[in-house]
UniProtKB/TrEMBL annotation:
InterPro entries, per database record: UPF0178
This protein's name: UPF0178 protein SAMN04515677_10882
Transmembrane regions: none
Similarity comment text for this entry: Belongs to the UPF0178 family.
Organism: Romboutsia lituseburensis DSM 797
Length: 147
């Protein structure tokens, strides 16, 4: 088991690394060339910029039982199909039970924007988001290590 981070624009890289250290879990950071990470002892893979280049490379690295930190619903769906455990930067654990609704909502929002309408963007990140992420990541690690 390892934790892979879709690190493009990810605000919880450091929290993820700290939790992984507690559980002695390896971490792999994946990002494109517009992001630079230098975390001692942590493997980082930098990919060329391009639509979904990090997502496709990450899904190719996922093994059953891995944890993936991502805010991308499409990537989360692919991870679930491979037996991984995706979690959002806000602590939402993606499951087979909730991913279809999330993808559908994303599709509807895209249609609204494409036809000239407006949708709400994400709310401003709060300290509570970091706390919830850390709590849920710890619970996910505990669950997977026990099983």
């Amino acid at each position: 088991m390892k934790i892979l981070i879709d690190a493009d624009g990810c605000p919880v890289v450091d929290i993820t690394i700290e939790v992984a250290k507690v559980f002695n879990i390896d971490v792999l950071i994946m990002c494109d060339t517009s992001h630079v990470f230098n975390k001692p002892g942590i493997e980082t893979i930098v990919l060329s910029k391009g639509a979904d280049s990090v997502d496709f490379a990450l899904v190719n690295k996922v093994a059953k039982g891995d944890i993936i930190v991502t805010q991308d619903y499409g990537l989360a769906a692919m991870v679930l199909a491979k037996g991984g455990y995706p979690i959002s930067q806000n602590g939402k654990i993606y499951t087979n039970e909730n991913i279809d609704q999330l993808l559908f909502n994303r599709h509807i929002s895209k249609k609204i924007r494409k036809s000239g309408g407006k949708t709400r963007g994400p709310k401003k990140r709060q300290k509570e988001d970091d706390i919830l992420f850390e709590k849920n990541l710890i619970q996910l690690c505990e669950k997977l290590i026990i099983n």
